[in-house]
Every structure is written in structure tokens, then in C-alpha cells.
Amino acid sequence: MKDRLIQLIFEKAFKYSKEPSFKLVSGRMSNYYFNCKTVTLHPEGMYLIGNIIFGMINKAGIKGIGGLTLGADPIADAVAYSSYLKNSPIEAFVVRKTAKAHGTMQWIEGNIAAGDKVAIVDDVITTGKSTIEAIQKAQEGGLEIVKVIALVDRQEGGRENIEALGHTVETVVTREEVMELYRAKNP
Predict the structure, then answer these.
(1) Of 66, 68, 86, 85, nearest to 76 (Cα)?
(2) What does the alpha-carbon distance between residue 46 and residue 40 come to, in Å, rounded to a whole number?
(3) Which of 141, 133, 115, 131 lies closest to 169, judged by CA?
(4) Contacts 24+ apart (CB under 8 A), 76-82
(5) Domain count, the chain
(6) Closest CA to 135 of 113, 174, 108, 157
(7) What residues contact 56, with CB distance under 8 A and at least 6 apart?
(8) Which of 37, 28, 29, 51 is CA-nearest to residue 8?
(9) Residue 42 CA neighbour count, 13 Å, CB half
(10) Residue 111 belongs to a domain with what CATH number?
């Protein structure tokens, strides 16, 4: 499944240029670009991601999986769906970028509560900023973070920034794994 996921990421989500031509959220220019939504919203991508990440968290006693909207949402949904099919339901939740402006004014949406064990997930980590934001909001909501998972680690310091806060990051796919496929197809 992982090999096929790398292939899908390479085909649908990855762009490479010898000159830095892709502007990142940070404003920095890069040679690499990953638009993982083309994979996380793809039927086969959802199937692969849901099964792979479910396998990574199944034995951790996790009640929920989620992260900062929008990158984490389809990943959390795919895992929740896969978990239900495997008779081991895990709730999906969403960490908002801003608190809800009406009603309960919450930061986190879903069927989880303070004290629940959760996994924080993100589609791509570069600096780790959005993952760290999700971790902080989850902790403020009283959630116990037992796993942090990145679909793609760009290998540019994000993992180290998150781990400096005391959370181990597990990665499904690294930039280098995608580049290995790129080099094989572009000798």
C-alpha cells in the first residue's frame, strides 16, 4: 500500500523544479511542492491513507484523530471510515483555524472530550507550524496527544520543531522517497 501511495503522491501531488519556483506558506521559495489534497481527496488515496494510518494508530488506544483544517480533514475522515470498517471506530475531529464565532465558540469540532487520547495528523510538514498549532489547540482543549503523524515530511526542519516540543513525529512518506521515484523516472 505504501508503494502505491508514493506513486499516487508522485503522480498527483508532487512538483519539482531545478530552480526554486514554488512559493511556500512561509513565503520561502522551494524546488519542491506537494499539493496533497489531490491525493487525500482521491478515492484510492483515501483508501490507502485510511488503511495505512489506521495501522499506525490502531493499538495506541486512541479515541480520535484530527488536526488543523483543511489539510488534516480528509486524512482524519479516511482513517475514521477505515476504522469503522475494521470494527475499531476512531472519531475524526477538526481543529479550526479560528474559534467558532457563534454558539459554543469552540476551536475543536467532533465527538471527543477533554481527557481523550488523540492523534494529530497533517498532510504536509515543512516548518511544522500548522501541526504545532493543532497540537496547542488540542492540548488547550484537554486532549491527550499520543501520536503525531505527517502524511508527507518535506524534511526541512518541521519534524525537529515538533519533536522539540516533546512529540515524536511518525511519517507515512518522506520527500526523499518521492525524489527516489522522480530520479528513477528522470535519469
Answers:
(1) 66
(2) 5
(3) 131
(4) 76/121, 77/46, 78/40, 78/46, 78/47, 78/49, 78/50, 78/53, 79/49, 79/50, 79/53, 79/54, 79/121, 80/50, 81/46, 81/50, 82/47, 82/50, 82/51, 82/53, 82/54
(5) 1
(6) 108
(7) 147, 149, 170, 172
(8) 37
(9) 15
(10) 3.40.50.2020
Determine the residue type at 20.
P
Provide the residue-wise pLDDT of the chain in tens; the chain has 187 residues: 999 999 999 999 999 999 999 998 888 899 999 999 999 999 999 999 999 999 999 999 999 999 999 999 999 999 999 999 999 999 999 999 987 777 777 899 999 999 999 999 999 999 999 999 999 999 999 999 999 999 999 999 999 999 999 999 999 999 999 999 999 999 8
What is the residue range of 27's domain? 2-185
The predicted model scores a pTM of 0.95
Cα–Cα nearest to 60, from 15, 19, 118, 20: 118
Around Cβ 2, how many Cβ atoms within 10 Å? 11
For residue 108, give the C-alpha cell: 475543536
Cα torsion 70, 73, 74, 75 to 10°: value is 120
